[in-house]
Inverse folding.
């Protein structure tokens, strides 16, 4: 028997709806913490990394709402993310007290931007931010890192951030990234996947073993934040 269930849902967004999936523990009475996840510039909510993490979270007693937003404009994606956050807050079925926001690649930029916005509205709106393969700059264009990390530097001290990145990620120069982390006010934890690319593939390792590592790090970090 599975430890989790999953429902597909439609999230209202202006005159449209966003496709989303709600993954939750099979015994859902005591679910108090939720995670919202979204994909990078390509793909959708069924990207393997997001599905794997959603199922791992639900198996550990968390609710995970992942969604698809195909827009490549960051502002548009942040608005969509806000609609999903509002939808999650409105769910009567669960007594959600804590919400983490996260995503992969461009999705993590949208999550950081939304967390910054929400934290300006309310101190306890966001419990933390999960950034999988944060794209600090396009490949070989390291000069854009200041602009792309603006929302990270704007996060307040009370919003912790977890970064999971590959040491061979061509969109995250390690020296520039470590300089960015030093400029952040938020409490930061970084988990480096040795030999990992931007897609977190590692030569000589199965995708499943890498994802198991990632999922364990995310869940361990969330528990540290009092999730």
């Amino acid at each position: 028997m599975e430890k989790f269930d999953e429902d597909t849902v439609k999230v209202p967004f202006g005159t449209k709806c966003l496709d989303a999936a709600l993954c939750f523990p099979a015994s859902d009475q005591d679910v108090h913490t939720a995670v919202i996840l979204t994909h990078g510039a390509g793909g959708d909510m069924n990207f393997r990394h997001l599905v794997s993490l959603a199922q791992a979270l639900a198996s550990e007693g968390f609710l995970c709402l992942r969604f698809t937003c195909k827009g490549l404009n960051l502002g548009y994606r942040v608005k969509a993310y806000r609609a999903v956050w509002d939808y999650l807050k409105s769910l009567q079925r669960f007594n959600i007290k804590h919400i983490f926001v996260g995503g992969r690649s461009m999705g993590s930029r949208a999550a950081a931007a939304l967390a910054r916005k929400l934290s300006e509205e309310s101190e306890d709106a966001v419990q933390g931010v999960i950034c999988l393969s944060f794209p600090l700059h396009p490949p070989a264009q390291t000069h854009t890192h200041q602009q792309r990390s603006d929302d990270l530097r704007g996060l307040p001290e009370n919003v912790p951030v977890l970064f999971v990145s590959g040491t061979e990620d061509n969109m995250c120069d390690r020296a520039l990234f470590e300089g960015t982390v030093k400029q952040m006010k938020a409490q930061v934890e970084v988990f480096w996947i040795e030999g990992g690319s931007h897609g977190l593939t590692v030569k000589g390792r199965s995708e499943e073993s890498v994802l198991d590592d990632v999922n364990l790090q995310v869940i361990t970090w969330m528990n540290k934040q009092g999730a």
User: Anything to note?
Assistant: The mean pLDDT is 95. The radius of gyration is 16 Å. The first strand starts at residue 4 and ends at 13. Residues 207-224 form the longest helix (18 residues).
